[in-house]
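Kindly go through the following sequence and its backbone structure tokens. Advise at your convenience whether the structure tokens fit the sequence:

___
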Amino acid sequence: MMSARTSKATTVWRQPDGKPVSCLEKIKVLNQNIQEIETLCADALEDGVLMGCDADQIKAALHELIDGLKAPHNAKK
């Protein structure tokens, strides 16, 4: 199964100053992290729907979770 992100152009990861991240190993780790999160979210959505929950409510809860994440203290917003 092809993921939703697989068909999209590769993300250009940026530093707080807007410059692109150039380290290939960092880019690889970031892309792997996003792919893992996508898989976990898809599994949570599928589980919820199979248990009779509303898909839109599950998606809203996932959005709320992401929106509530705090950046590390040394990261600039």
User: Anything to note?
Assistant: The chain has a mean pLDDT of 89. The chain is about 50% helix and 0% strand. Residues 59 and 65 are 10 Å apart (CA to CA). Residues 24-67 form one domain.
